[in-house]
UniProtKB/TrEMBL annotation:
Protein name: Retrovirus-related Pol polyprotein from type-1 retrotransposable element R1
UniProt entry keywords in alphabetical sequence: Coiled coil
Upper taxonomic lineage: Eukaryota, Metazoa, Ecdysozoa, Arthropoda, Hexapoda
Coiled-coil boundaries: 15-58
Organism: Bactrocera latifrons
Superkingdom field: Eukaryota
Amino acid sequence: HHNKRRPVYWWNEEISTLRKLCHSARRRLQRSRDETNENRLREELKSHKKLLKSAITRSKKVCFEKLCEEANIDPWGTAYKICMSRFKNKQQQPKDAAFMGKVVETLFPKHDRISYAKRRNESAESPPLVTEDELLAIAKEIKNAKAPGLDGIPNRALKEAISLKPRVFAEMYNACLKEEVFPDPWKVQRLVLLPKPKKPPEEPSSY
């Protein structure tokens, strides 16, 4: 008895049904002996394959976006398991807080804090301000499938907000440039440690 192969994360009932239709259409074509009938069956198979390909592409896109959203909530969930399944020597994520701290210190060593004196010369050249056109152009380049930040706002929503109110965003960014102040939450990120393949898990440099 062979274990049934586990379906990929984007597999669904629609794809399963379309795949069966493709197989049936292929068998009918292979068994056909009538040239006229073969042409019809060939077109039928082509149509089923096109529908199957479209369904797979659509499902992959939707499921990938969901995975990105889930990864922002639970970094060790399905997305992490799928990524780690690609490694031949599967290693566990470090759990010990002290060791994880050591890994972070190794990967991101601390440096002396640098204090930048505020410009006194009023004639000094100011940084170029952000324009609404620039924001709209950048927003179009943002990928919907990318995982959102710690605020949990999906990129799709961010793009929509910028397209509707570009002036609000431009004024906010320009205020940051003029005041030389950037909100601390913008500087916070979530760090996910992924073990390198074939590296000793007890070494901080293995992540």
